[in-house]
Structure formats: structure tokens, C-alpha cells
Design goal:
It is a single-pass type II membrane protein. Helix content is 0%, strand content 25%. It is mostly beta strands. A three-stranded antiparallel beta sheet has the order 1-2-3, with no helix packed on it. Strands 4-5-6 form a three-stranded antiparallel beta sheet, with no helix packed on it. A hairpin with a 3-residue loop joins strand 5 and strand 6. The N and C termini lie far apart (93 Å).
């Protein structure tokens, strides 16, 4: 019925204990025992490849000592409870679908191009700072820009002249 740790069963082949494969292993499914985790181990990295019906590589996940890399048309991270997409990435865009995006670095977030959002806010009891250290800061909206200070002062400072201009109206 087999040899050593390898047994032939009605459902396929059963391999008990620690086994080493010197060449690629091609299988339809790999399962661990119900009471044990499945461990894949390598001295360099573990790579999982997905191929289409013509044998062409369509996706690859590599877990290495320094990084986890995924190469595919689209990468997604889903919530375990309801399966909604928390993070997705493809060549054209990255989408973050969590309720809140929190940036915890001391320097904040740096964007190379424009940012579009309906709401930016600081953590409670923290100041919100929008800064462009070497260029201009531009806020535009076709229906108006509103700045309010409900419980404090509104201050505007500049090095040269301060201009407030209305193109229509007072």
C-alpha cells in the first residue's frame, strides 16, 4: 500500500511526517490533517504559481526572507467576516476599501500628485496640517471652499501680501 511515509489510499496518496521534494511537486490539492497546520518550508523562499490551461503563468505568490511578493493582474485583500474588499491593486489603480485610512508616520502622508477626497480630518485632540514646504497649496472646488473654526480663531499668515479676491459679488 506504499513505501515509508507514503501510502496509497482510495482518495489519493497520503504522506505522513516531514517529507522533502527535490523536484517540483504537481498536485490538484494539498490538505493537512484536521488537527495540524500545513507547513511549507524552504531555505530560500516559497513560491506558488498559477497557470492557465495553456501552461502560461498567470499569477505568482512568493514568500521570501525580506518580502512577500505577488505578481498577478489584480491583488485583493478581503475582510474575513463579509468578504468585502479591504485593499485591491492592479496596473491602473489601488483601492483601499476600509472604513478609515490611518497614516501613523511622523511625517504624515506625501502625495506626488493631486488628492481627491470628500473629507480630511485629524485624530481627536490633534492639529490638522496641510503643507507644501516648497511650492503652493491649492484648494479648489466648483461650488465653493469653506473654512470654519467653530471653537477658536481663524488665522492666515504669509511672508508677502495676503490677497482675498472675489471675481463676482462682494
Amino acid at each position: 500500500d506504499g513505501m515509508g511515509n507514503l501510502r496509497v489510499t482510495k482518495k489519493g496518496i497520503r504522506l505522513e511526517g516531514i517529507s522533502e521534494f527535490l523536484l517540483p511537486l504537481y498536485v490538484k490539492e494539498i490538505h493537512s490533517r484536521k488537527d495540524s497546520p500545513l507547513v511549507l518550508q524552504s531555505d530560500r523562499n516559497v513560491t506558488v504559481n498559477a497557470r492557465n490551461h495553456m501552461g502560461q503563468l498567470t499569477g505568482q505568490l512568493t514568500i521570501g526572507a525580506d518580502a512577500v511578493e505577488a505578481q498577478c493582474k489584480r491583488f485583493e485583500v478581503r475582510a474575513s467576516e463579509d468578504g468585502r474588499v479591504l485593499f485591491s491593486a492592479d496596473e491602473d489603480e489601488i483601492t483601499i476599501g476600509a472604513e478609515k485610512l490611518k497614516v501613523t508616520g511622523t511625517e504624515g502622508a506625501v502625495f506626488g500628485h493631486s488628492v481627491e477626497t470628500p473629507h480630511i480630518r485629524a485624530e481627536p485632540s490633534q492639529d490638522l496640517r496641510l503643507e507644501s514646504p516648497t511650492r503652493s497649496l491649492i484648494m479648489e472646488a466648483p461650488r465653493g471652499v469653506q473654512v470654519s473654526a467653530a471653537a477658536g480663531d481663524f488665522k492666515a499668515t504669509c511672508r508677502k501680501e495676503l490677497h482675498l479676491q472675489s471675481t463676482e459679488g462682494e
